[in-house]
Specification:
It is built from one helix and eleven strands, in the order E-E-E-E-E-E-E-H-E-E-E-E. By secondary structure, it is mostly beta strands. Strands 1, 2, 3, 4, 7, 8, 9, 10 and 11 form a nine-stranded antiparallel beta sheet that branches. The chain has a two-stranded antiparallel sheet with strand order 5-6. It is globular and about 60 Å long.
Length: 144
């Protein structure tokens, strides 16, 4: 799987921008490993095959105010339980125009859980993973 982490990003999920929560984002893309080792081989032979899997892992500042990220995520968990995908857009550099050097990634995904890995005295952050859920590979768009 290809894994890349970005810090100056714009993330929109379900038409709501998460920019004010200062996201740190990791984009993970890849294919399932398929073992194609022939009988009698002395080593394993693998290929990547099947449908592309993708996920976007976000670390966000926690906010529990009305209509803030905590309330939004609660609604998105309910959407996932009902089988409803939501649209995700990720622009790698929030300050630059979409281009070949600054693509926008788009896909439909769900949030199945999120964690708050902080201790008392730490800055309150949450880890959220958006997983592709519609059977379509993530789209890399370079047109402004």
């Amino acid at each position: 799987m290809a894994v890349t982490t970005y810090r100056n990003v714009r993330v929109t999920f379900n038409a709501v921008s998460w920019l004010s929560y200062h996201p740190e984002v990791t984009l993970v893309r890849g294919f399932p490993e398929i073992d194609i080792t022939p009988m009698g081989s002395t080593g394993k032979k693998m290929i990547g095959g099947g449908v592309e899997a993708w996920e976007v892992r976000c670390r966000l500042f926690l906010d529990v105010a009305d209509n803030a990220i905590d309330e939004q995520l609660s609604g998105l968990l309910a959407d996932a339980q009902a089988g409803t995908s939501r649209t995700m857009a990720l622009i790698l550099d929030k300050d630059a125009a979409i281009s070949a050097a600054n693509p926008e990634y788009q896909g439909s995904g769900m949030i199945f859980d999120y964690t708050a890995p902080f201790k008392v005295g730490d800055v309150a952050v949450i880890d959220v993973t958006i997983k592709g859920s519609d059977g379509i590979a993530i789209i890399r768009d370079i047109t402004p």
